[in-house]
Design a protein that fits this description.
Helix content of chain A: over 70%
Number of domains of chain B: 2
CATH topology of chain A: MetI-like fold
Number of strands of chain A: 0
CATH superfamily of chain A: MetI-like
Strand content of chain A: under 5%
Order of helices and strands of chain B: HHHHHHHHHHHHHH
CATH class of the largest domain in chain B: Mainly Alpha
Helix content of chain B: over 70%
Oligomer: heterodimer
Order of helices and strands of chain A: HHHHHHHHHHHHH
Structural class of chain B: mainly alpha
Shape of chain B: globular
Radius of gyration of chain B: 25 Å
Structural class of chain A: mainly alpha
Number of domains of chain A: 1
Distance between the termini of chain B: 41 Å
CATH architecture of chain A: Orthogonal Bundle
Largest sheet of chain A: none
Chain lengths: ~290, ~290
């Protein structure tokens, strides 16, 4: 493409990009560097403590618990959202009420995680057995002859209960993006496969998945980053109690509850380092998409 | 032969079953919330919301009392106003600055252009967590914490990388000839920004505005960090999450409060869904 740019004085570009640059420097570049520095300082940022805060991040029981939970989230949430999103993307393409189905599954994306948290806290509401249940899930258990469960109180089931809320919110996002990619696969390609005698599974495995690889990379990396930063759902539903803490909630607590700037900064840095390779893959995919246009 | 036909026929039934079941699964939690928010406290405690389904049209079992309570004494009305103020500033400022920057980036030659673009892409990687402590310290020094202006600026700072990235790729796609022609006709740079670039980008801008609007409206974490405990400026999300603590088991009130916080995003979503989806695809795969 031929780029024709206007010649201007030295000041003109500054008027256009200047304000944005200023914001990025103040709200992103400077604070990020400062946080790295603070992660080597004590709780009040007064004296240098070396790797003390990092030692805490990687060895303390509370942090290890948070990492373990985040890992569970990482696996179940990512596999769940991308898997279900892909399944729905393919299935809704074959029903007449596609638009309605998509709207309904996509809808939770529009509301806040706090709102979704309340919606599901109510779904999980628990009354001791014998009492009238007001949470739908426990009512179902009781009708089926089981004991009601404290979904959000019992570990490790509470972690899965929280992940379900995440699935409910994000599956629609994956579905919408994967659906667009699925519709972009040339129909002849799939028909050719069927003519050659491939069954549905083979068509899926050898035509659909390879054709959708860029979109799949895109949503998978996006979900991975989301899950690493997951905060609101846990903050609202359990506040990290009963063994449900994750990295981002831990940082929030170190910052406000324990006023330990050093540890909070170290947690942020570790989070950042974990996110870098995933975002790298994500952005590379985005830029590739741009070149293809 | 019949077996072959059967094999081809079976999936369609299964597909419909799976899709319909999923739709039910996805909508039931919200329906339960909505029904509960209109039931009197005494009913909510003693029976599940599904019991109204036996006689859903008996209107005497519904009440708007819960809404009256949360709006008046629950502070949701103030929070609603705060959410609007925060969201409007937190949307207009970043989108305008992003449009300016993306235009400059795609239409102007200047030193450091490549560096600036790389900076934006890199900033997409940095989690906001990396910025909380230093920005909060700065805000405490400047007395910006607990203020609407402080929150507008912070949402601008956080929203800019994605907004510039998205608009830049859109501006790149606009035909160069148009801008050359405008230049030859004597249009200033500012004129071609306001009269050409902006009108031509209405679809992209609309997507971005909706995106940023929902993002800021639904944000909890940024508000928690920079507003501190100031209830007078707290948005809906913050107010709702503190009600979860104080109302605990008062589900008739919590459900009503939750629905108040969801009304605006739901209206935006259902009326402007096309733009929202296009925005997602624009930022993700090429639509």
């Amino acid at each position: 493409m031929k780029l024709v740019k206007r010649k201007t004085g030295a000041l003109t570009p500054l008027l256009y990009v200047g304000p944005a640059v200023l914001f990025l420097l103040v709200y992103q570049v400077y604070p990020a560097l400062q946080t790295v520095y603070l992660s080597f300082m004590d709780r009040r940022s007064q004296s240098f403590v070396g790797l003390e805060n990092y030692k805490y991040v990687f060895t303390s029981q509370t942090m290890l618990r948070a990492f373990k939970n985040n890992l569970l989230w990482l696996v179940v949430f990512t596999a769940g959202t991308v898997g279900l999103g892909l399944l729905f993307a393919i299935l809704v393409d074959r029903v007449k009420y596609e638009r309605l189905a998509k709207s309904i599954i996509f809808m939770p994306m529009a509301i806040s995680f706090v709102g979704a948290g309340v919606v599901w806290k109510f779904m999980y509401a628990y009354k001791p057995s014998g009492a009238e249940q007001i949470g739908l899930l426990n009512q179902i258990l009781v009708v089926l002859g089981f004991e009601p469960k404290g979904w959000l109180l019992e570990s490790p089931i509470n972690n899965l209960a929280l992940i379900v809320v995440g699935l409910w919110i994000w599956t629609g996002y994956c579905m919408v993006i994967l659906s667009a990619a699925y519709k972009g696969i040339p129909k002849e390609l799939m028909e050719a496969g069927q003519v050659d005698g491939a069954n549905d599974w083979q068509v899926f495995r050898h035509i659909i998945v390879p054709e959708m690889r860029p979109a799949l990379t895109m949503v998978t990396t996006t979900m991975l980053v989301n899950v690493l930063k997951i905060f609101d759902i846990i903050y609202v539903m359990t506040n990290g109690n009963f063994g449900t803490e994750v990295i981002a909630n831990r940082m929030f607590k170190e910052m406000f509850q324990f006023a330990n700037t050093g540890r909070a900064s170290a947690i942020a840095v570790v989070l950042f380092v974990i996110i870098i390779p995933i975002m790298y893959a994500n952005i590379r995919q985005k830029l590739k998409g741009e070149e293809a246009r | 032969m019949t077996r072959q036909r059967l094999k081809a026929k079976m999936p369609q039934i299964v597909i419909n079953l799976v899709v319909i079941l999923s739709m039910v699964l996805w909508i039931v939690p919200t329906v339960g919330l909505l029904i509960t928010s209109f039931r009197p406290a005494s009913d909510v405690v003693y029976s599940g919301w599904w019991t109204v389904l036996t006689s859903p049209l008996k209107f005497t079992q519904y009440t708007v009392e819960n809404y009256r309570t949360v709006l008046a004494t629950g502070g949701m009305l103030t929070a609603f106003r705060n959410s609007f103020i925060i969201t409007i500033g937190g949307t207009v400022i970043p989108v305008f600055l992003a449009a300016l920057a993306a235009f400059g980036l795609s239409r102007l030659h200047f030193r450091g252009r490549g560096f600036f673009y790389a900076l934006i892409v890199f900033m997409l990687v940095v989690p906001t967590q990396m910025t909380f402590i230093p920005v909060l310290r700065l805000y405490n020094k400047l007395s910006l914490s607990g203020t609407f202006v402080g929150l507008w600026l912070v949402h601008t700072g956080y929203g800019l990388p994605f907004s510039i990235f998205m608009l830049h790729s859109f501006f790149q796609g606009l035909p160069d000839e148009l801008f050359e022609a405008a230049h030859i006709d004597g249009a200033s740079l500012w004129t071609s920004f306001i009269r050409l670039a902006i009108p031509l980008s209405v679809p992209a801008l609309a997507s971005l505005v909706i995106f940023q609007f929902l993002f800021v409206w639904n944000d909890l974490l940024v508000a928690l960090i920079y507003l501190g405990g100031h209830e007078s400026v707290a948005p809906l999300t913050m107010r709702l999450s503190s009600l979860v603590g104080s109302f605990g088991q008062d589900w008739h009130l919590l459900t009503a409060a939750a629905f108040v916080s969801m009304v605006v995003p739901l209206i935006v979503f259902f009326s402007l869904q096309q733009y929202f989806v296009r925005g997602l695809l624009g930022g993700a795969v090429k639509g």
